[in-house]
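Re: your question from the hallway

Yes, I did run it. Sequences:
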Amino acid sequence: MRSDAPATRTRAVLAFPVDDVWLGAPLAEVAGVAELTRLVSLPGQREPLEGVVAFRGDVVPTIDLAGLLGMKPRRGSKEQQCAVVLARGTERFGLLVPELPVLLTAREIRAGDLALADPRLRSITALLVESGDRRIHCLEYWPLIDAILPPAEATTHAH
Amino acid sequence: MRTEGERVVREMNRDSKAVVSARRAEPARSSWIPFAITLGTAFVAAAAGLLLRGAAGWGVAIAAALLGSGIAFILTKPGTEPERRNQPVAAPPTVLKEREEATAARLESERTRRQIELATTTLREGKDPLTEVPELRVGPLHGLLEAIHSANVSGPVISRIAMSEEELLGAEAGSLPRSWPQSSPEDAPAARVRAAEALGEIDVLLRDLEALASELAAAHTGAANGSGLSAESFAPAAGLVDALVHTAADGIEDLAAGLMRASELASVAEQVTNRATLVALNAALEATRSGSEPFAAIAEETRRLAEYAREATDTMTRLAGEIESKVERTITAIHADSEDAKRALAALGGSSGSRTAEPAPASAAPGADSAIIRSLIESVRAIRDILAGEASSPAPHPYEPPVPTR
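Structure:
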């Protein structure tokens, strides 16, 4: 998905707060939401990798999005933390979010001006939508994830 | 002391005198005026007949006769209905006065008898009549009861009765009805019988008072000797307090453990609620993704169910927390009370001499009570002696005091 894709083409956005900004993911990129109780740490894992989470029979690596973006993690209760599972083809990747996300349908959102995006996130923001007084930044997550955990073929080539 | 009965008697006397004097004056006034008017009109008619001739003379004579008759009729006709009601009964004034005085005296004697019964009943119950029965604070018995109350029976008490009796009978005691007790030789045995009965009741009262004094003295001696809580009995009592406190504390701690379990269950319920919320969110995601209305409806129902579960879980968690904090406070209070009870027991044990502690303040109360009871016994004995002398000597009048004051 490209950053100039209009918001009207998006059926819905899954929004969640991180630090003092609202982030979001278009519904097309979201596979679902997983409980954090199913998060299992891995031996020798490095930040921002938090571990793996079980999601519909798959083992999904999960990262701390706030840590990755250099933001302070919002202090939600342990029970409210969850993982937003992103999908790219058959690939799954989890983003650890402090609160349960909010599903905003197309009727509840409108396209926003990218120039109004948070300066810290402007370079990686693919889509900016607004809902009420909330400004939701839909980031280009996969390049970030690829930078942390390269795809399997890339790893194979490296070896 | 001026009683209500005396006031009633005085007012009735005054009213009866006014009625009798009014009745005596009425016939004298109404007898000569019509006669004088009739005589005057007759003279006028005769003069008119002599001076005027013909019809004029007859007319003046008839008019004068009619005028005189009318005036005489008006003056001699019976009074109106209210006036007739105000007329005194057709009884001699002396009889009327006697009846009124007898009625007042009977009322007063009945009231005095009721006060005596009340005072006797209250004294038998071991209570103070002056404080228990407000009616006795006014009346001929007030002086006697006040003397008993202050434990100072003396001559003025008896003279007080005499004065009240004299005031009750009034200066015209000779006009009392025959039913009123008069001093006669036939009444002396009955008076002695009544005095003996009163003596018997006072003896019963004395015995009760002495028994009460003995019990109080025994209790006071026991408390002073530590027999109420001796050193030997202190240890079991303290152990009993300990056992009671431990039983209560164990029960509440069990309850607290149950509450902890309930809190765990509330936590599980919260987890279930979180999972339900997550399921509802995922259902909404899939419903939006697919655009299926039935799926959307199911997702909406799931969301509502999750919200309901959230509310219930929040309420349960809040209540469990409140109960837990209350139980903790109760446990703390029980332990604190246990320590207080032990200290109080130690203080009581110390008052028995085996421990060093401040004396129990309640130990002084029985001594004070005993002194009051002893004083009361002395007063009742004095009354009894007076009554005993009264019963042994011939009494001309059952209510006459032994030493008249005036």
